[in-house]
Every structure is written in structure tokens, then in C-alpha cells.
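Why run this: before we spend reagent on co-expression, it is cheaper to look at a predicted model of the complex and decide which construct boundaries make sense. The entries below are exactly what would go into the expression plan.
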Amino acid sequence: KQEVTQIPAALSVPEGENLVLNCSFTDSAIYNLQWFRQDPGKGLTSLLLIQSSQREQTSGRLNASLDKSSGRSTLYIAASQPGDSATYLCAVKNRYPDSNYQLIWGAGTKLIIKP
Amino acid sequence: EAGVAQSPRYKIIEKRQSVAFWCNPISGHATLYWYQQILGQGPKLLIQFQNNGVVDDSQLPKDRFSAERLKGVDSTLKIQPAKLEDSAVYLCASSFSGGVTYEQYFGPGTRLTVT
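The model came back. C-alpha cells follow.
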């Protein structure tokens, strides 16, 4: 059974720092991995989606990497800003049809950027 | 292209009352998902529809929760009677199909507080 873990659960850093958020999964037979952002009490915004055949994806100051063999993904945020404060969640989609291709979620990392 | 719409955005009710949430998916999307997200946790899938049929409702507490998608477009999720532990954000998502290649798109969520 696929399990997704995100460490740390919370992170507080000064503005301007580069930071890395971690996501690990137990079963390497994934179709893709997706990083989401969630502001308090709100819905989910997709940030980056990495296919299992890819090593990384970039969007602006965000870079997500995927190492399927080790079951790990990282989200790198460059030059952090207070507006980056949010909860970041990762989710994997297994490639098994009997899973109905549902997303398996981590619990998220709550990020606070201090001005 | 319009995104996934949900209403209401916020709802406060007392325990034992009933509540209903509405979701309008992206036009043409056959698959619709309802998630429950408790504070500090990742989303939990409650029910997945393909058109107006249920694909998976294994995690739906059927003694108090019900959902329908009668015409294969809009969907409603109902809780009756509500308990304190139902306080959560309820997320609706849709995808073109339930196949592995299709991405889920999320609505803004409904934040439910049960007092």
C-alpha cells in the first residue's frame, strides 16, 4: 500500500533564504507526482507535476525533483518571500488500474517565511 | 475556461444539524471527486463518480454522509446529522476522465465548522 510522508511538518525561515521541502513515498510504481500549495482554509493550487519518466520540473522560483528509485521528491524554493507562506502538499498517482488512479497524499509541510 | 465551482465557501452549523455542499465541475469532465481535509492532514477521498455512477465510496461514512450526481454534471454532498469531527474543508475536484493520464483540478473548497 502506497504511503506518502512529508518532513518537516512545519518550517519557519527568514525571507530571502533558499529552502527545500521533502516528500517520500514507499512504492516506486508511480505514474506521476504532484506538488500543491494550499493557503489557510482554502483549496489546492497545483504547482508542479512530474511524470515518472522525468527527473525535475521548474516553474519560476520553484524546482521539483523526482528520484523514483529512492522514493523521494524535493521542492526547492529559491529566494523565499512572505507570500510563499502556505502549506505545501505532495501527492502521487500509482500506475495500478486497481487503484482507480487515485491520488495518495502527504500531510503537508506548513511553511512560514518571516519578513 | 471556468474552473471547478463550489458553494458555499464557508458554513457554520451546530452538531446534529444537516448541511449540503454543491460542486459544479469543469465542463466536459466526466470524473468528479469529493475529498475531506481535516486540519493538519492531507485530503481524504470520500467518493469518486464517473458520470453519474459511483466508482469508489469506500471511505464515505454512509450512516451520515451521502452524495449524488444525478445528471452526471453537478454534484451535492450532504451530511446528516453533523458531528464535531466533521469540521473540515470539503474539496471537490474533477478530471476529464478517471484514466491515469488525466489531471485532477480542484475547486476552492467549503470550510465547515461544526459547533
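The longest strand of chain A covers residues 30-38. The mean pLDDT of chain A is 94. Bring this page to Monday's planning discussion.
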